Amino acid sequence: MTPRVHRRKRKTPHRIRSPLMRAPLLRTIGPTGQRMQFGDRVALFGLISSLGALTIGVLTFFQDQGAIQREISSSLQVVNASVKTVEDIKGQIIDTSYPESQSDTQLTSSVIDLLLENTGGKPAIITSATATIRQVQKFEACRGGPIYVSGFYQIKVPDTQDLPVDLRVDLPFSVDGNSEDRLVISIGPERSSSSDWGSIYQTEVTLQLGDGTSLNVGKFILWAPVELESMAEDFEYRTSSGSPPSPLGCEKDYAHITEQALNAEGIKSPEIIDLVSLLRKYGLLL
């Protein structure tokens, strides 16, 4: 007689259904490990597509809002700032012995050259400019005379002025929307003696805009008026006459002024480098 084998029935594990599975999204995905039916996959794909479309719509909305904001506003920035030398600063020569005998002249000076860009659709309005003059150092020459020169600079620096000082002037200027434009700013002495070789100005410039904001355009080392050619001619003449310039004479401060200009923070007048070579030639700068 064959013995009877008792087969045990395999128990099916009890499935615990979480209340969270009643959520539409989780019901669509199904419990972990369960293969999704075709209809569930279609529903999931549709949900993901809807979320993607919503995200794109939101991003597009904010991009459109940004574009609209740019079109109705201005946004001014400095693309490039440099110092160049011009020879057409108008001025007047004044002889204090004969005040009525004034004559016109043109001065060579360092000026600030700005390339501005407006990335907004509305014109950017500049109303004024402020130059913070931190230091002024004059090249006093070994000659004298009652003749003075007054230059028509946009920002005039008084001869006697406590430093630092903020000098603000009206400077109406505009940059059209989505365009670039150049702005040149001249800074120089209100009046200078014809017996001097100009002055070195350490300055920082800020533009005031029509919307009430300000734009700092940088720090600059300017020479105004530039008298490098006249200085070289004078040095050569005195040397040939047997009385060359001396570091112990009236040029004793030239090296100090030049070294400070070279070490100062800011964009420098290109003539300052040429001045170094001139002073070294005549032993005024080591």
Molecular structure report:
It is elongated and about 110 Å long. The strands form two sheets. Strands 5-7-2-1-4-8 form a six-stranded mixed β-sheet, with no helix packed on it. A five-stranded mixed β-sheet has the order 6-3-9-10-11. The protein is built from five helices and eleven strands. The chain has a domain at 76-226: Immunoglobulin-like, CATH 2.60.40. A hairpin with a 4-residue loop joins strand 9 (196-209) and strand 10 (214-224). The protein has 286 residues and is an alpha+beta fold.
Task: Provide tags for this entry.
single chain; 286 residues; Immunoglobulin-like; six-stranded mixed sheet; five-stranded mixed sheet; 5 helices; 11 strands; 39% strand; elongated; disordered N terminus
Strand order of the largest sheet: 5-7-2-1-4-8
CATH fold call of the domain at 76-226: Immunoglobulin-like
Oligomer: single chain
Helix content: 25-40%
Summed over residues and divided by their number, the pLDDT gives a mean of: 82
Q: β content, as a range?
A: 35-45%
**At CATH's second level, what is the architecture of the domain at 76-226?**
Sandwich
The overall strand count is 11
Helical stretch tally: 5
> Which H/E pattern describes the elements?
HHEEEEEEEEEEHHEH
Biggest sheet overview: 6 strands, mixed
Radius of gyration: 38 Å
**What is the CATH C-level name of the domain at 76-226?**
Mainly Beta
